[in-house]
Structures are given as structure tokens and as C-alpha cells.
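Handoff note, outgoing to incoming analyst
You'll be picking up this chain. Sequence as last confirmed:
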Amino acid sequence: MHAELKAKAKEQQTTIADVGCNKAYFSATALNYLAPHYGNHLQLLFKLHDARGVYQKPCGGCNECLQQPPNHTVGGQATVDVFCFEPSEIHVTSLTQARDALYGPPDGTSKPPGQETKVNFHITQAAVSNSSGIARFPVNCTGNVCSLANSDQQMQEVKITTVDEQMRSRGLPYLDVLKIDTEGFDPAVLAGAYESLANQRVGLLSFEYHKLWKRSRGTLKECVHYLDDLGYSCYYDAPVLAKVSGSCWQDAYEIRRWSNVVCVRRGTAMEEELYAGSYLAKAKRKDSPTKAKDMKSSKAG
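Most recent structure output, in case you need it:
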């Protein structure tokens, strides 16, 4: 996350769209970089979710709330706008209560006393897909894998929207970060963001990839090529990044195992940051001393 947000240091405002917000631990991780003066946002949210007593795993399915704050933060942010989209009524209720306690209702004109950064946390109860309309969603969803495909539970109607529709209706010129985690429907969300992506109005894109993609019949290869055509380079997100775009694509990458993919606009400082943390850069650095040694030996001969 640090590499992706490092380029924000000289800017004054950041906009994040968190699609499939769940307990908002992704946004909290980003806020630990962008608005550190509040404290550890992950732990602040966890304590409020836990106190409500409706979650079996209030810390998150992978204990996300235990992640330590970063050693390096991004300074100079006057405001951070988080747009949280979540179809589960239980999650939305918990998020709203936590938001009001931590940040207050969204208000672009003021910030809490003593805070250097104002966090505007917008919450919308809606599913995000490739078209607008109405769908049915599980009523009592408290886990991490609920989706529009769960048909064996009590259901309620929820609004469906698209990234492009939200960008237009809210007058958002740019998303610094677009995170997608919709339990297998990430390809549909990407399709509904075509206009925003084609016009380079998304800086960083992160989505989850796993076996649940069978729900939408999408493939990683299709999505990576789609994003490549729109000007985005994609990597498997890991301690050392693996590029999957362009000529780096291999069919072996279609693993359908729980993983994350991160994409950035080509030709940007953020792309340079991702490349620097990739296997490609690591191999190049390792190879450079050998080449230099060979050249020196050749000249000496």
C-alpha cells in the first residue's frame, strides 16, 4: 500500500471508492497512511464493530484489524473522501455507527478539532455491477462472502449501481483508489467502470481474484487484457509484485486462488513505484552487476 500511495505526498486531497466495503478495513488501512493523526483506524473500527456484538469475526476473515500501522505515512492531506458501497444492511448499520463516532457525518467544510486531515466517509447501501437496477441480497449477511448469488437465504431488495454512474451523479472528476471486492463479481464491476477507466479517471485499481469468479464467469486473462487496452498495467499483489499485463501474461496465472491484483495507469509515478517492487525490477538489479563485471573483463582483455 505504501508504494501505491507514496505519490500522494504532495497533494492535498484523496478520493477512495471502496466497492464491497464490508467492515471497511481496506479503507482503514489506506487511512492509516493518509490520516494517521486519528490513531490506528483498523483498531478504532474493530472496537466499534466488536462492541455491536453481531459479528462472529469482527476482526475480519483474515484478522485484518491486527495489521500494524505503517512506518511511513503520507503527509499533507487536507481531506480524504471515502465512498463506501455495501449492499448488506447489517454492515451498513455498523459502518454508519462507527463512521459517526470516529469521523462524524461527511462534511467538506470542517474537520474534527486537533486533526490535520478531515475524513469524509460516505456510505451507500448498494451493490455495484455493470448495470443499474434492483437485485436481491441476503438480509442477515455478516460474513465476507455474501453476494448477489446467495439465493438460499432470506433476501431483500437492494439498489444496483455502477462506478460510472456514481462518478457522474456525484460529480467526481477522479478516483485516486478504486478497490473492488464483490465475491466473484469483480469483472462485472470493472465492466461498469469502463468510461472512468477509458478516460484515465482512476489512478490505482485493486480487486480480489479467486474461485468465486465462477459466479460471474469472468477470467483474469480477460480482465487483464481489458485493462491493458484501457492503459493500465496490472500486477499480482504480494511482497514482491508479479506483472501480469501485456507480454508478461502467462496462462499459468489463471490460478483462481485467493489473491489480489493491483493495476495503475501506465506512464505515471505510481507505475514506477509498482515496477520498482516487482520481480522484473529485482531481476534487473540482480543482473546489472554481472553485466558490468562482464563488460569490465571484456575491456581488460
